[in-house]
Task: inverse folding
């Protein structure tokens, strides 16, 4: 499985770097690959807290998509709120969604999925500061750290992206691999996961 991590100016750095660290370990295995990508091609990103980093590729047609958040609650000039208002990213996500085997988000990346029309009637979570807004989009709000609805996995705020990433590794590569990565990172997994019935 190839998962592409969609990054943009104003993204919360931890939303990206936690999962990136986990999936960097996982991609040593032949069944897992990942890449940082920009919406329209390679891009240099300035995060919410000023960290600058590069996404060397553009969004293609991966097996899975990861959407981080940042800048939603304070209506920042860059970040998930700004991207939702611009509409280009959400339109692309909506267009790509039917081709994906898995869509994931952390924090207010879920709000971009909601804006793209992907969460209505589905169990999902986001940063607790945006729970009410997520419900207003018609999502079935769950307050768990990670919410698994089959081809859609969402996670709560900021550091919960690490647990989401490890959970994805467990689904793709097995629990032993995920636990091994957590051990290598000296990270204690939070297993507060809601799994929708039938999944």
Result:
């Amino acid at each position: 499985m190839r998962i592409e991590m969609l990054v943009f100016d104003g993204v919360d750095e931890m939303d990206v770097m936690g999962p990136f660290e986990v999936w960097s370990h996982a991609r040593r295995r032949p069944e897992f690959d990942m890449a940082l990508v920009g919406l329209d091609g390679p891009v240099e990103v300035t995060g919410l807290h000023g960290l600058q980093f590069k996404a060397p590729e553009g969004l293609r047609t991966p097996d899975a998509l990861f959407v981080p958040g940042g800048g939603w609650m304070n209506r920042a000039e860059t970040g998930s709120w700004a991207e939702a208002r611009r509409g280009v990213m959400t339109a692309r996500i909506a267009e790509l969604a039917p081709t994906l085997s898995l869509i994931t988000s952390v924090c207010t990346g879920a709000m971009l999925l909601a804006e793209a029309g992907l969460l209505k009637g589905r169990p999902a979570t986001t940063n607790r500061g945006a729970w009410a807004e997520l419900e207003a989009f018609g999502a079935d709000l769950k307050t768990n750290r990670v919410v698994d609805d089959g081809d859609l996995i969402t996670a709560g705020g900021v550091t919960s992206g690490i647990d989401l990433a490890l959970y994805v590794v467990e689904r793709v590569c097995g629990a032993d691999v995920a636990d091994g990565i957590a051990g290598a990172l000296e990270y204690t997994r939070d297993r507060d996961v809601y799994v929708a019935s039938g999944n």
Q: What stands out?
A: DSSP finds seven helices and twelve strands in the chain.
